[in-house]
GNAT family N-acetyltransferase (Paenibacillus albicereus), 466 residues
Amino acid sequence: MKQLRRRLSRQELEEAAALADRIFREEGEPSMGTSFPRIFDPSIGLSLGIVEDGRLVSFIGFVPHQIRIGPALLSACALGSVCTDPDYRGQGHASVLLHEAFHRAERMEAALMLVSGTRSLYRRNGCYAFGSVRRYRIDGSPGRPQALPPNLRVRPMDVDDWFRLKALADAKPAGYLRSIPDFASELASEAVAAMYGFHHEVYVAEAGEQLLAYVVIAAGPIPPGSDLEPFVVEWGGKADRVLPLAREAMRQLGLSSLLLFASAHERRMMDLLEGHPYTSSHNQGTVRIMNLPLLWSQLQPYFAAIAAAAGGEIPDWTVERLAEDEHALVLDGRLIPLSARDWTLLLFDGPDAEPDDGPDAFVRQQAEERRLDSADPLPALAVAAAGGTAEAESAAAREAGGAVRGAGSARPDSSGSPRDAEAGRPAQAGSESGSARHLPLTDAEAGLLRSYFPLPFPYTAGLSYI
């Protein structure tokens, strides 16, 4: 008899880890229980399973998170390690568990659900691709000393660095809320690095007693003929300190190349890497807006920070419910109905985003380069988040994640090679109606919304990958 388990016992979680190892791991790779300890932690108690014939046959990992967006704090849940015993597939187990996870997230008052996968099961149930990330390749010269800024010293991280390391991570305008033990656990679990037989190497840059930047690099032996490359899992600090730090760490580790990930709002890092080869993709996995009014309410401190940094006020806007799971944006008194997918586009890709219905659902942002080069509102948020420091940059949370084969697809992203964000982008609509824009916004409305969206958001395939 089939039984849905809403609270798995320690033994059942051990069975779940063994099942996930059979599905996702190859011989010699670390256990999923080691790489993703929170998923199988009985003290959290949120992961779900189906038991049949006296054993656990289907599983979905469920972990709660809080995500910082500037001064705002969002309630989010993450799903991962979704698997079913091959002998029990085709019976709808994954669908049952997914919907139960949605109900649980609603009861918990989660605003967002992050899902590690992109399969059609998720897309059919309101989960959409979101955000934009670039993978840059940095070529190095092993053994050749790098030119470092004056007084900058690069060294491996020491355990005495924890407070200063976390302060750098917390200074980013978007990131996962985590304690020092959380940070240490993520570094030790090597969740994404282990998928490629890599390990973490943590380097810091300091001037005197001040820690200025850090990088977490996934590196290790690469089999002959493999197109794997070492990659940065996470970085923190100002981009003009992170980049020389990464280059010097490459030299010390003897790396001939390194992949570094930058989210769409990390403009300073992109400027510094101008001319380096890169590929573009979505953020890892998919996202589902669980409670839009709650999300809008939780974003109010972020909206206020953007408005204050610009010397203005939050726009006259509200979210109005039209029907079950249908909401409209009321902007300056005008009702603008938006579908769940449209809301995802607006929040995470901006008012000029265009959906692509291919398997990757890649979102191209119209005239992004021209808009961001001329006026990017996010540095104002970074200044506010950093307490008014003039040189603070708008950086997001975790950068790196899926180890990349060449400069192409990451293993956590099974959807295939990403496409360039700039390729085939349509021109910006010139009329007041904005008729060439997917979202039903006038040019004036889109211009106002660009100051707030897309939201800065942490890369979801970094240290906290689930």
User: Anything to note?
Assistant: The longest helix spans residues 93-108. The CA atoms of residues 227 and 406 lie 5 Å apart. The two ends are 30 Å apart (CA to CA). Confidence is low (pLDDT under 50) at residues 357-431.
